[in-house]
Amino acid sequence: MAKTKFLTTIPQKVAFGGLVVVTVLAVAWGIWMSLTRNPTTISDDSIREEITPVVKLVTYEYNFTQLLSIDEAGNPLGWENPFTSKRYVATIDGKADIGINADKMKVTIVRANMADKNSEVKSVKVILPHSEITSFSTDPNTLKKYVEDNGFLNWNQVSTDDLNTLLKQAKKEQTKKVKESNMLQESDDRACALIEKQVKALCGDDVNVDIAFE
């Protein structure tokens, strides 16, 4: 019985060689992908977890010195007299932290194939609350008194209630200053830039990032 000769012609040898090369490349590509593939499936929650620390870092610290002042006659007629008048002038330092509440953040993704959780992420939409004052405090150690006139024989002393009222007024005035400045807008802009950078690092530079505010 005659034996069939394998790869007896040059075209056959070339075709076989090409097939071997393609097969080797395909196997190598498969191995490389399996070794480098991110084991964590990109999801709404995983993206949210990645950018939450970034949002929490978007904080501005606004430092201020507040004037505390009382100038009262201390009597129902409003007359100035040394027995009932009360004057108090002081300053106190404080700070207001400006940031975004990450707990209110919402993240939605769109995939190339929404039925396949492992398909490419095409776009990410992030909805944020606007920046706000997240904390406000004054440092009692920085209180400096310049004038304290409590009337004759200290009959009309500055009370704890008086000081608490002054501190509440300080918070009100400084909050107004923050809102009238551009600090809240700067915080929003900074959040957008950092979030977009973080999402692209996670999903790729081609992903469309849409950031909106409530």
Structural overview:
The longest helix is centred in the first third of the chain and has 27 residues, at 10-36. Residues 1-7, 10-27 and 29-40 have low confidence and may be disordered. The protein starts with 9 loop residues before the first helix and ends with a strand. 11% of the residues are buried. Helix content is 39%, strand content 28%. The chain is built from 4 helices and 7 strands; from the N terminus they run H-H-E-E-E-E-E-E-H-H-E. The protein is rod-shaped, with a radius of gyration of 34 Å. It has 214 residues and is α+β, with helices and mostly antiparallel strands. The strands form 2 sheets. Strands 1, 2, 5 and 6 form a 4-stranded antiparallel sheet that branches. A 3-stranded mixed sheet has the order 3-4-7, covered by helices on one side. It has helices at 10-36, 44-57, 160-180, 183-203; strands spanning 60-72, 86-99, 106-111, 121-128, 132-138, 144-149, 208-213. Helix 2 (44-57) packs antiparallel against helix 4 (183-203).
Question: What's the quick description here?
Answer:
39% of the residues lie in helices and 28% in strands.
Content-based structural category:
alpha+beta
Report strand %. Answer: 25-35%
Proportion in helices: 25-40%
Shape: rod-shaped
Tally of separate helices: 4
Largest sheet, strands/sense/barrel:
4 strands, antiparallel
Spatial gap, N to C terminus: 84 Å
In sequence order, what are the helices and strands, one letter per element?
HHEEEEEEHHE
